[in-house]
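Appendix B, Record 12. Input sequence as logged:
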Amino acid sequence: DLIDGEPARAAALAKAKELLKGSDGAARPEPELWCRAARQSLALGEPLGVVESCEAALTPLVNAPAGSSPLKDEWKWYALAECTHGEAIEKLLKPGQQPTLREQLHAQAAGHLATSMTYANRAAEPLLVVAAAQRFWRHCGPLVASPRRALLREPASAALGELEAIADAEQRAKVVPLQVKLYESVLAILSDGKEWAAGVKLLDRAFG
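Logged structural output:
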């Protein structure tokens, strides 16, 4: 227990994160290591630690010069950081919370997971796209059923585009049921706003 217990793992994680920071306290540009720290924080039930590590993992992307192009391997870690961030937000959902707060948390998680799908496609990692997509739908159902389902429009539209962009035929086949659900969800949102032209375009995509 002294080696493998939760307190020891938490202490080791804290030390690792300390080493990942420079003398000025700024995060070193190590996306992979920060992602691993985020996954450990998630396993330990430390959502704030997850957020800190995910933001640190994304720092090189945020600070990248305009026009620069990250390597595929870098996109993979950025995708994992966004996916992990979405998972951490999901763990903040608790029974009895105010509906408005729950809707906001669902929307935030969906946004991170949609971004994860984008980055995973740029990394040519279809398995990671599918993994993020599976987590994404957990937030769609509650939002579609809520009066504020317009919150889902942007992330759902982005997710649809990324599902369509999966190059691997086998992996793309796995998400067809999810695509159908997302088309239905976005169409319902467009109908709420009487955006008929946008709805027709979406139908053309669905059956094109």
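The CA atoms of residues 41 and 179 lie 31 Å apart.
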